[in-house]
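Human: Respectfully, please carefully check these tokens:
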Amino acid sequence: MKVITIKQDLVEAIKKVSVAVVSKSILPALQGILLKAADKKLIIEGYNIDLGIVSTLTDVVVAKEGSIVVEAKMLSSIASKAGDNKIQIESDDKNIIHISSGKSKFELVGIPADEYPDLPVIHKDESISITFDKAEPFKQSIKTVKYACNEKHPKPLYTGILLDFDSVNLNIVAVDGYRMAVKKIAVPTKKKFSVVIPKKPLEEVTKTFNDSDKIEIIIGLRYCAFKKDNNIILTRMIDGTFLDYNQTIPSISKTKAKVKTKDMLATSERMNLFNNDKIIAPAKLTVTNDNKINFTSKTLIGLCKDEVNCSIEGEEVTIGFNSSYMCDLLKQIEEEELVIEFSGELSPALVKPSDNELHLLVPMRLAN
């Protein structure tokens, strides 16, 4: 293999695919990245069995086609420190990789490409394809709901995010037992289906693709791919039956409070000042008929009281929440105002910034 590429393009591509590279593995090849020069392109792959990322460089000169596996961290360091704008990479019959840039020359021991596992193939006749003309709505939805996804949850299913296609909308859902976030995007499909995707690959989608990029989601039997041109993020899906999230949404509310998002967030952050890793005291909210929400937070180290103006419909209610969870929720909301619906002091509160977004927060029990 012999190829000449632009330094910055190579550095960025290595950074993207290195997310899928493991630091330790019984397969040494998985600790590296695959370089494949073919068809006037340099294809760079990172793969760890669960996650695969492919970045393709087209502004290259391929003098000799071929492929080799190279240690990811070292190649990244060499490329980033290169003194010239162009880098030449060449491998020989003994799997020695020769790298040159300007007057600088390096040699690395590579691994034969045939020791690198093939990426899973999603067969067209066993897959469903959804295309977004612009990635922005999908990216923003993932950013909005991911706070409610707990990667340390004991049930693997809830370490991921649900993509639920109901033939009219794509419902993106995250839940961890204490909170839930749902965001809807209008995406007409021919049939209803749902899949659960690990959180990390979806976060990589938000980082890798630009808002204006056209992306295709290809859902197979066990794997899902997010594709833009020749750049791919491929992930294993999580098996199992996800929570019936529609059944958890309260159908009747006794109290509705319309409030400014920034006021609610600022007050919740003040309520959280006395909490730490060892102390988690509930913030007590009292929704009153005089169009106010009174806040009180008391721990062994201090007391905080505050209030927020709002517009109230319904009866008064007193309820307790984890103020840290409340802050996490409110930080995701872009709308200036939101509506909070209460069904009682022990029932989850429903936070609705808009018709296509909702959040559910389970209360904390207050001491008598």
Observations:
- DSSP finds seven helices and 26 strands in the chain.
- Residues 295 and 306 are 5 Å apart (CA to CA).
